[in-house]
């Protein structure tokens, strides 16, 4: 996934780090944690903690376009 330069969620030097919460379980982290999964669903950005990402890996992968396999 690409992001525009200067995107504060990208973790670039000087950018403020905002807390993020998991869209599934509500776990919070200092954002963006590098082990979390991020997606855009119906135009809304969503973050998923590493535990929820692991538990739902097959569902996540099944939504990928075949060009990603």
Could you list some keywords that capture this structure?
69 residues; globular; two-stranded antiparallel ribbon; 23% strand; alpha+beta
Structure write-up:
Helices cover 17% and strands 23% of the residues. The chain has helices spanning 50-55, 57-62, and strands at residues 19-21, 28-30, 37-41, 44-48. The strands form two sheets. The chain has a two-stranded antiparallel ribbon. The two termini are 15 Å apart. It is α+β, with helices and mostly antiparallel strands and 69 residues long.
What's the gist of this structure?
This protein is α+β, with helices and mostly antiparallel strands and 69 residues long. The strands form two sheets. A two-stranded antiparallel sheet has the order 1-2. Strands 3-4 form a two-stranded antiparallel ribbon. The mean pLDDT is 78.
Query: What is the topology, as strand order, of the major beta sheet?
Result: 1-2
Mean pLDDT across all amino acids: 78
Write down the oligomeric state.
single chain
Structural class: alpha+beta
Rough outline: globular
Largest sheet: 2 strands, antiparallel
Number of E-type strands = 4
Radius of gyration, whole Å:
13 Å
Distance linking N and C termini = 15 Å
Strand content: 15-25%
**How many helices does DSSP assign?**
2
- Helical content stands at 10-25%
């Amino acid at each position: 996934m690409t992001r525009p330069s200067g995107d504060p969620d990208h973790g670039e030097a000087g950018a403020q780090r905002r807390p993020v919460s998991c869209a599934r379980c509500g776990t919070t982290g200092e954002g963006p944690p590098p082990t979390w999964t991020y997606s855009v669903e119906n135009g809304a950005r969503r973050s998923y903690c590493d535990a929820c990402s692991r538990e739902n890996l097959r569902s996540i992968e099944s939504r990928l376009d075949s060009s990603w396999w």
